[in-house]
């Protein structure tokens, strides 16, 4: 039996980084939690097909939102699956096309959809940005909105799929 955090090598590397930084955030509200842990998906739909298509792995906010892989198909590389934002206020959408895009978006650190409002960073932000560059060769996006817009096609597919369960 493996002591790895997850079957996703990229998440295992992030978990090791998170463990080194301790209880200090490296991106506002983001924190890995138990891989596959329930993220309240049963409140959206009790259909087993719906719930089984998500693999939650992180808190997205400090208020109860989560990130999860969306099993849109049976591709073998879980890290290549789209990332769903499961909001505590009723939001459910695709935020990134894959894990590495999400990790890059996390460099914006605070309310990445509104980067102009970021005035200060979380405690381990500088270390995270350096780790992401050293580990994956990724830097903060020059245009976070453009990077986020890349997930629109996946989100359109996701929204259509949600409609099968009566979720709008």
From TrEMBL:
This is SUKH-4 immunity protein. It comes from Glycomyces rutgersensis.
